[in-house]
Specification:
Number of strands: 14
Structural class: alpha/beta
Largest sheet: 4 strands, mixed
Radius of gyration: 20 Å
Strand order of the largest sheet: 3-4-2-13
Order of helices and strands: EHEHEEEHEHHEEEHEHEEEHE
Strand content: 15-25%
Number of helices: 8
């Protein structure tokens, strides 16, 4: 048995930070722009898309289900298939390490007229999925799982039932899945969370022409609302910007401009 090798690191004070930079696009918004563009009618153009492994996994899954996506030098162009226009995948959809993709796509696939299976790497297969499985089951979809974990096999239902549901834990991913399933339900779907979570999906639904309803702490959508293709500019990711924010803050002579960073109040804790 060999002894563990150690290394010494010498850290010296650095100089001040100055200049202008643009951080990569927001991952959560990139996922949602792709997914909503895929189920919209018409063309969606996305600039600032984050080419991370997670977002690419979402893009690959949508393409496997027949969505036309063109990758240009400055934008992604998504040719929407409509709310029920996705095609049954010819293989298992591998979502890598993306819990966002798995949970939100469950909501989309719950209202499709085919069976699909979602899986991912070992880490993703270890994450809990009952929070999305159970409410979607109340809407009429059947989701088989490995004791509440992926792989998930989604048996879509053409006639989803509307839902009135209080989430036990605030979760932007579960909320998004249920809102998108609600678009294919016969009636109004209403959700309430015990606390605020990221509201990217609600904002983006408004952009795609589906007005989210808000009443006494409840959030709702009406089934049958058609999404329309949109122009989406993905802002820079605040989590990526945080490193530079802190770095500039701790040196008195720093002057750093971070361009086009998303400052959504539901995730601006680092700024506060």
């Amino acid at each position: 048995m060999t002894a563990e090798r150690t290394r010494d690191f010498v850290v010296s004070p650095g100089g001040r930070l100055s200049g202008r930079i643009r951080v990569p696009g927001d991952k959560s918004i990139s996922h949602r722009a792709l997914i909503l563009g895929a189920i919209a009618e018409g063309v969606t153009r996305i600039t600032g898309f984050l080419e991370s492994a997670d977002c690419v996994a979402t893009r690959n899954a949508l393409q496997t289900m027949g969505v036309g996506i063109e990758t240009g030098s400055d934008a992604l162009v998504v040719h929407g298939a409509g709310s029920r226009g996705l095609r049954a995948p010819h293989k298992v959809l591998d979502l890598g390490n993306s819990g966002t993709a798995m949970r939100i796509l469950c909501g989309v696939l719950a209202g499709q007229d085919f069976v699909s299976t979602l899986t991912g790497d070992a880490s993703l297969r270890g994450r809990p999925m009952r929070r999305v499985i159970e409410p979607l089951g109340r809407m009429g979809a059947t989701i088989e799982s490995n004791q509440g974990h992926a792989p998930l096999t989604v048996h879509g239902c053409k006639e989803l039932k509307p839902l009135r549901y209080e989430l036990p834990v605030a979760s932007a991913q579960v909320k998004s899945a249920l809102l998108l399933a609600g678009l294919n339900a016969a009636g109004y779907t209403w959700l309430r969370e015990p606390g605020p979570s990221r509201d990217h999906t609600e904002r983006m639904l408004d952009t795609f022409g589906c007005v989210c309803l808000r009443a006494d702490g409840w959030l709702g959508v009406h089934g049958g609302a058609a999404l329309r293709g949109a122009e989406i500019a993905v802002p820079g990711d605040l989590s990526s910007a945080a490193f530079f924010l802190v770095g500039a803050t701790i040196h008195p002579d720093s002057h750093l401009v971070l361009e086009c960073v998303g400052v959504n109040p539901t995730r601006s804790g680092v700024i506060s």
